[in-house]
Amino acid sequence: MHIVAVEPTVFFVQTVSGLQQGVGLTLANDGVAARATLVVRLGPQETRVDLGTVPPGTHRQRIYMPDVRETTQAEFTLLADGQVQDRRTLTWTPERHWEIYLVHGSHHDLGYTDLPSNVLREHDRFLDDILRFCEETANWPEESRFRYVVEQGWSVLHFIEHRPPDVVDRLVRLMREGRIEVTALFGNETSELCGHEEQIRLLYPSFRLKRRFGIPIRTAELNDIPGVSWGLASVLAGAGIRYFAPAIPDYFAWGFQVHPFWDEEAVLPRDMIGAFWWEGPDGPLSGPTSRPSATWPAAWLTWPGAATLTIYCALSFRAGIGTTRRRTCASA
Question: What is the DSSP letter of 53?
């Protein structure tokens, strides 16, 4: 039995004995299965890792060893049945500590994966799982607790109508706590086909939930729709929605040169992270008695080659306060 490779990784785990670095270990066993141990020596520090039973052939597994913060010599000694089988000495250099944030995403594609009636029931089950995930992580650190944004209002409405009151109470409690959020629009509507009144009525269902349960409605999403009506800026602004996150589909541009959604010279290149203000057709309004304006400071995030371009817009409705560094975008 001998060591084929010892490969450091960028992955670490926190243990009771301190931070441990993940290491990819590859062994070759030309004999019968045998229990093995790896002795890792980092300077004066020695760690024994139980490898369990190593089967015949090539065997790979992840082991963990103490994190090092300066370059040092690392000695790896492989033991089988108490006998030294192989020894490797490597120069071990510190790996950068990365902090990774996992953000759960969802998309309501009603009817694309099954009959709409089945998809509705499937989304009910999704929300059952979401409640469970939130409750199972309730005692985790604040930044690690499970959170979920429901992309459109229709799935929450169906869930509330088809779950017993105690389950609905659990959902409402988590929405009030900010662990689960429902967004403003009923569905991913093609907003360019809607008149002003129709766009307003797209807000009615979620806002009924807001009045009934006392939950906040702060954001709107409009995903996988090829464009956003300019008038929607004014509708969302008038309803007090402060954040807008449309994901504009980009798959039709794969491998082709197409006309962009916006003037890239006036706003920003489509593959660049940037910021801009989106001004609605009613324009910015000011003065102590004026109604909120539809001027949005926005962060526009794009991923080259991805299926969608995602725009995160923060809406500013502060009467009497001037806006600076504003860029005006035409209708998508």
Answer: E
Closest CA to 89 of 30, 39, 47: 39
Q: Which residue type sits at 301?
A: L
Mean pLDDT, residues 149-177 = 95
Domains contained in the chain, CATH given? 2-92 (2.60.40.10), 116-314 (3.20.110.10)
CB contact at 8 A, 328 and 284: no
Q: Could you report the per-residue pLDDT of 6-35, keeping only the tens digit for each?
A: 999 999 998 888 899 999 999 999 999 999
Helices of type H across 59-152: 116-136
Tokens for 87, please give them. Answer: 């020894």
Global confidence as pTM: 0.64
How long a stretch of residues is the chain? 332
Task: Give the neighbor-by-neighbor strand order of the sheet with 274-279.
Answer: 219-223, 243-249, 308-314, 295-301, 274-279
Question: What does DSSP assign to residue 32?
Answer: S
Asked if 161 and 155 count as a contact pair (C-beta separation under 8 A), the reply is no
252-259: list long-range contacts, CB under 8 Å, 24+ apart: 252/226, 254/305
The percent of residues above 70 in pLDDT, for the chain, comes to 77
